[in-house]
Amino acid sequence: MKDPSEFHREAVEHLRREIPGEAVVAASGGIDSTVAAVLAQEALGPRAHALFVDTGLLRAGEAERVATFFKASGLGWELLPAAPRFLKVLEGVTDPEEKRRRIGTAFIRLFEEEASRRGTNVLIQGTIAPDWIESGGALRDTIKTHHNVGGIPADSKLRLVEPLRDLYKDEVRLLANELRVPEPERQPFPGPGLAVRVAGEVTEERLAVCRGANAVVESEIERAVSAGAIPRPWQYFAVLLPGRTVGVKGDNRVHGLAVSVRVVESVDAMSATALSLPPEVLRRIAERITRELAGQVTRVLYDVTDKPPATIEWE
């Protein structure tokens, strides 16, 4: 990337030239889409309508955190409640690629409706380089289909504008500093949300378990960071695994769910290193998950795989 201030100026000028009318902006609350939305509103003012979609696939407290984050970023935005729509399209789906395609299509159909209501066909997205690189195409293999790239249906009527398309995550964070967007180092959260952290079928019950386990992981990692026990990681979360595992309750054998915890360090999201956590941190995470989700989770695992060969997310 050029100097962040130069990129900032050129991006705003380009958006003003390219978009003479209204536009909708996909604002997920992540750093990429927020930076794109801030650029769009600087360029277009009230003609750039930032839309945050509650898909029902969010982390615990996500909507409230995003509202605070957007306010601190100086962003005008609108909430679109759409949980039933997204849960419906995921019914019975277990294939990770199909999940991502269906979620991408559901987003696009919703944005098509909102764009039409505002008399436009322009959608501004926070797509960055790893999104389209990993989604494949041309001579590139598909590593995983990002919902905002490969999940876009061929018959979409929207014209995509992606001001960050050639940037990597570390470059977006430098740009966020230039734009005075707070918390540029906040951990990424995938656009498909917890749907790609619930391995297998996505149901409201399985989402609730994953959401609860994820909240414990975030809480304990942030506690360890505050205590100086570990540096702040790039990303830290829980994954609900498919199938059931044997456990013990009193003198009885039971079967429950298994959760995998993942904590990684990265710079640009193209590669990542699994972190070695202190045993006491891992123990607290496991104890809290099995206690707070008693009767549901009987086993907690820790993922020590780097990217590559793994990806950061499980699906």
Structure description:
With 315 residues, this protein is of the alpha/beta class. The protein folds into 2 domains: 4-179, HUPs (Rossmann fold); 197-303, GMP Synthetase, Chain A, domain 3 (2-Layer Sandwich), CATH 3.30.300. The protein is 39% helix and 18% strand. It is built from 9 helices and 10 strands. It has helices at residues 4-18, 31-44, 62-72, 83-89, 96-117, 129-134, 169-179, 204-226, 279-292, and strands at residues 23-26, 48-54, 77-81, 122-124, 159-161, 235-240, 245-249, 252-265, 273-274, 297-303. The strands form 2 sheets. The chain has a 5-stranded parallel beta sheet, with helices on both faces. Strands 6, 7, 8, 9 and 10 form a 5-stranded mixed beta sheet that branches. Strand 8 and strand 9 form a beta hairpin. The longest helix has 23 residues, at 204-226.
Summarize the structure.
With 315 residues, the chain is of the alpha/beta class. The protein is built from 9 helices and 10 strands.
Termini separation comes to 29 Å
Which range does the strand content fall in? 15-25%
- Model regions low in confidence, pLDDT < 50 over at least 5 residues: 135-140
CATH superfamily of the largest domain: HUPs
Got a strand count? 10
CATH topology of the largest domain: Rossmann fold
Features:
five-stranded mixed β-sheet, 315 residues, GMP Synthetase, Chain A, domain 3, alpha/beta, Rossmann fold
Question: What's the SSE blueprint?
Answer:
Layout: H1 4-18, E1 23-26, H2 31-44, E2 48-54, H3 62-72, E3 77-81, H4 83-89, H5 96-117, E4 122-124, H6 129-134, E5 159-161, H7 169-179, H8 204-226, E6 235-240, E7 245-249, E8 252-265, E9 273-274, H9 279-292, E10 297-303
Parallel strand pairs: 1-2, 1-4, 2-3, 4-5, 8-10
Antiparallel strand pairs: 6-8, 7-8, 8-9
Helix pairs in contact: 1-2, 1-7, 2-7, 8-9
